[in-house]
């Protein structure tokens, strides 16, 4: 128990953004250029600003007004980003988005209903990328978690050192949003997602994350 307590204290002293770690991977799933993008649960807008380098327009939505104001200030140099404080379940979404991204947010929302909305909001040939969290259940889940733990310590130490050299202290701005634990297992997520999004590709990742990638048919059904 004392060892676990020491690990917890070390992690608390060396916070790093596990979601941002996968931004480069998310971008690799997307076209080099696209017209309209939607980033759901944008937080401080880090991913939205990366999308804006490729998109004509980016709509970034988050329910937290304070983090939205911060995202706006950080994104003010990007004239093609519109950051909105809103509940995504209440936002009208036209079906013309070439890209939709949703990072560490789907477990806060009605799972199946939200995926259906995303599907309707995609333009023909559009791409949806979800990075989410799941509840551990299987031996494979626990094995992957165990493998991630030592790597997490090393990456946290390296990233904290780099941030301190830049004069940054405390938790990264992208980690200030409220969180809640996942309620669905990866098996449940996979079954429900594929029922709504035929052909979706789901996989577990290191650092307690999963991804869902769905490409809409080129001709709308």
UniProtKB/TrEMBL annotation:
Q: Which Pfam families is this protein grouped with?
A: Methyltransf_25
Quote the InterPro entries the UniProt record gives. Answer: Methyltransf_25 (IPR041698), rRNA_Ade_methylase_Trfase_N (IPR020598), SAM-dependent_MTases_sf (IPR029063)
Presence of keyword Transferase: yes
Q: Which GO terms describe its molecular function?
A: methyltransferase activity
Keyword Methyltransferase attached: yes
Ordered alphabetically, the record's keywords are: Methyltransferase, S-adenosyl-L-methionine, Transferase
What's a single GO BP term from this record? methylation
List each copy of the Ribosomal RNA adenine methylase transferase N-terminal domain by range. 22-167
Superkingdom is Bacteria
Protein's UniProt name? Class I SAM-dependent methyltransferase
> What is the protein's species of origin?
Saccharopolyspora erythraea
Q: What is the lineage of its organism?
A: Bacteria, Bacillati, Actinomycetota, Actinomycetes, Pseudonocardiales
